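Re: How this chain folds, sequence and tokenised backbone to follow
Notation: Tokens come from a learned vocabulary of local backbone shapes, not from coordinates.
Start of record: The labelled sequence and token lines come straight after this line.
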Amino acid sequence: MDIYAKTAVEATPSVKLLPDDIEKESQKVRSMYEQDYDWREGGISLGLDAQIAQIKAEVVPMPSQFRAAANRLPGNKDRRWMEEAGDMLTLPPGLADIAEDEEGGKAVEGMKKKEFERTEKWRKMAKIVKTGKDGEGMEFQFDTRSPKLIERTWKGIPDRWRAAAWHSFLMTSAKKRGGYVPDEDIKAAFYKLLKQSSADDVQIDLDVPRTINSHIMFRKRYRGGQRLLFRVLHALSLYFPETGYVQGMASLAATLLCYYDEEMAFVMLARMWTLRGLNKLYEHGFPGLMAALDEFQKSWLKGREVTKKLDELLIEPTAYGTRWYLTLFNYSIPFPAQLRVWDVFMLLGDSDPSIPVTGERPFAGGLDILHATSAALIDGTREILLDSDFENAMKILTSWIPVKDEELLMKVTKAEWKLSRKRKH
């Protein structure tokens, strides 16, 4: 016999016949592993992408023909976006074409051209307020009251202008609020605090390697982004001793370090703390966070069909909203979508002086962009939530939400924000 044929025969396992009853049990068990479970019937939960595909493959109750036609009228545009929110979890037509075409072709070129045009529009809106040698240290200012700038911010800040725009937005808020502290003073405090010890250093050291460790900047232990992240969080824990360090802060600092050096990232965090309500969100015992989630439940979710479903399942915003608000959606939606939310939050996150500050409502409208984004995510997952049991509803709300159409997410967020403003005024 040929040596290769002999080896093949010896390697073939012999088949042993099992008694009929054991054979049946074996087939039953193996079939359990091979079949597709229905996640609504209490079987193994599918991933959110699979659940979305399953929902869309079924007949989902749609608005009446009259209502669908009415939604196309100019005055009902916001209602249309809210009812079509579920589409944010699928690729928009232009990007879907790119996903199917490896080379991208004309669609990619069109997007590049559009991005260049948007970048030029932002360049024309920017006013130089500080120049440095060879362009270093150059600062820009934007008119935050301009309707054109507000509208373009909702459409997304071009990435090359994002750092300058965010800094300008917070600088304007600081000067408007009063008690303005220059960047240089905050930077000086940063370097001074680096020489001091913090009681939170051990916990910070534990959390740093777990923060966005899939990003190339934060992979190497004790080097690169991890080193910068530790230094910023260390200084922040001392700069705001009443808060100290709390888990969740690391994701905020990491996002800023993608756009700024360590000293400017610290400046931005310090301003966000005092100007965007983060000091209240992270307050010891989290009374501010509880107040924010209570406001979201009573003022933003009240009266919705999906709210009734969540109430039946005994799921309150504290079960899923804690991570959304403390990380500003860093661990809940894709990074490009998070940046779009931050764009608008940096611009429109000022508290409203016409709204009285109380213990129950300490933010005076300052978190409305976060509330609107949370409502938009509920809108986007509405059809799935309405068909879910407790386990799957919690999985959807506490897991990564695969937002693939940031444009639609922001349109729904804007619609929710405008609806809230109408209720208030």
About this structure: The radius of gyration is 26 Å.
